[in-house]
Design a protein that fits this description.
Distance between the termini: 47 Å
Radius of gyration: 17 Å
Strand content: over 45%
Strand order of the largest sheet: 3-2-5-6
Largest sheet: 4 strands, antiparallel
Number of domains: 2
CATH topology of the largest domain: Immunoglobulin-like
CATH superfamily of the largest domain: Immunoglobulins
CATH class of the largest domain: Mainly Beta
Structural class: mainly beta
CATH architecture of the largest domain: Sandwich
Number of helices: 0
Length: about 180
C-alpha cells in the first residue's frame, strides 16, 4: 500500500507555539512530531488523530481522513462514512446531544459508536446511502456525557468483506 506522509501543515495547524505533536492511528499505534510517514497494509477509510499541545498546556485535536484502495483492484471502492453532532459549542455535563452517521457505497453492516467516555458501544444502522436525497438516511443516537473533558468519539462500519470505514469527532464538555 502507499505510504502517505502526514504533516501538521496538511491539517492547517499553525506551527507557532506548539510544544508537542502526538499522532494516534486507527490501528492503535502512535507517533510524535509534526511530520510522520506510515504504511497502510489494508484498504479502508481511515481517520487519524493529531493532538497538539502548546507551550502553556492548551490542547486541541484535528483529524486526517484517508481512503486507501487496493492497488491490485483500484475499481473496488472502500466504504465511506460521514459523522456529525449537535450542538457543537457550549456542551455541558448531562446535556442530551444528537449524533448522526451515514455510510456510503456498502449497504451491509451497522455503524458502531464509541463515545470515548467508557460507556458501552452503541450500534445504529444508516441507509447506506441507498437514496442520496433521503432526509432520514442518517442513523441517529442521543448520548449524554457525565463528566467534563475532551472526548474523542469514533464511529466505524465494517462491510461483509471486513473493510472498515472510520470517522472521528472531537467533543468538548464543560461543567454544568
Amino acid at each position: 500500500m502507499n505510504r502517505p506522509h502526514w504533516t501538521h501543515h496538511s491539517l492547517g495547524v499553525p506551527p507557532t507555539g506548539i510544544q508537542r505533536y502526538e499522532w494516534t492511528f486507527s490501528d492503535g499505534t502512535t507517533a510524535s512530531g509534526p511530520n510522520v510517514t506510515r504504511s497502510y497494509p489494508q484498504p479502508g477509510f481511515y481517520s487519524e488523530v493529531l493532538k497538539v499541545t502548546d507551550k502553556v498546556g492548551n490542547v486541541d485535536y484535528d483529524f486526517a481522513e484517508l481512503q486507501v484502495l487496493d492497488p491490485r483492484r483500484p475499481d473496488q471502492y472502500v466504504p465511506g462514512i460521514h459523522a456529525t453532532y449537535w450542538p457543537t459549542l457550549d456542551n455541558r455535563v448531562g446535556q442530551p446531544m444528537t449524533f448522526k452517521v451515514r455510510s456510503y457505497l456498502k449497504p451491509d453492516g451497522n455503524e458502531v459508536w464509541d463515545f470515548g467516555d467508557g460507556s458501552p458501544p452503541v450500534s445504529v444502522k444508516s441507509d447506506g446511502n441507498a437514496d442520496p436525497q433521503a432526509k432520514d438516511g442518517y442513523a441517529v443516537t442521543h448520548p449524554t456525557f457525565k463528566q467534563l473533558g475532551h472526548y474523542l468519539v469514533r464511529v466505524q462500519r465494517k462491510d461483509k468483506t471486513g473493510l472498515t470505514a472510520t470517522a472521528r469527532l472531537h467533543v468538548r464538555i464543560a461543567a454544568e
